[in-house]
Amino acid sequence: MKLYAQILFFDVKAFYRCGPNSLIEFGIRCSKMGYGFLPYKVEAGIRDAKFYEKIGLIDPLTSLKNQKVFIWIGNVDEYVPTDTAIKNKVFYEEFVSKPQENIKLTVANASHLFPTENFGSGCRENAESTYYLGNCSYSGAAQALTFLLPNELKITETFSDEGFDPNRLKIFNQSEFYKGSENISKIGMGTRGYIYIPKVCEDPQILCHLHFNFHGCNEWPLDIALQYIVHSGFLPIAENNAMVMIFPLTTSIPTNYNGCWDFFSYTGSNFATKHGQQIQVVHGMLQRLIYGS
Predict the structure, then answer these.
(1) Which of 31, 36, 4 is nearest to 15 (CA)?
(2) Confidence (pTM)
């Protein structure tokens, strides 16, 4: 299996470790709730990354050197100021070579959503009722993956919810990848996730791409996650391009009511490192897929 480590962001919250110590700190310093009051500086996130690299809590930052990064931001996002979200580009410019070629930033006239060609609410409207998918006449899935894998993907001219085999979208047990003594929900992850494996990828002689897709806040319930997965536009691309797609899911717990992935330390202060509990679970999935262990 061929592994790509490219990165894509949609309706991003903020840069690496912005307001990392609590949801209150994030809200005051990184979101529209308290924007303007002691805003968190991207230089602090860069400094944290370099310090974590130095003490071995993250892999060498040189591994980002030849990566591509795709960032798409809505300029009427209800939660995060545009200039805070744009700082993601500043963060990666510190580590990616030729950033003018390898980092693509799009600021769209859109709310807090994932853009699709023809599904969901209007692009500037609140998209909560349509699973945070918005009809922006723009396939975010196609645009992002084409940028990350140039000249490698077959993308059809029209985008629809067809073009994939729904029977190949399966639920898998996430609990087996959690090494703790308690239920996986202890770290804010659900017991189940989704995986899509195109038929061609069942052949061990075929080299397939691998894509991990991390949902947004409030998209963790199985039924909502399913609608997001089916209508986001990723599955037809996966089917037509020998691409295995993993959709791990969080869950709602008292310290993380909206089921967000950890960006404010609710699983512990190491959440943004190799010792982060959610990161370790996802790493276990990756190991299983690549090495079978």
Answers:
(1) 31
(2) 0.93
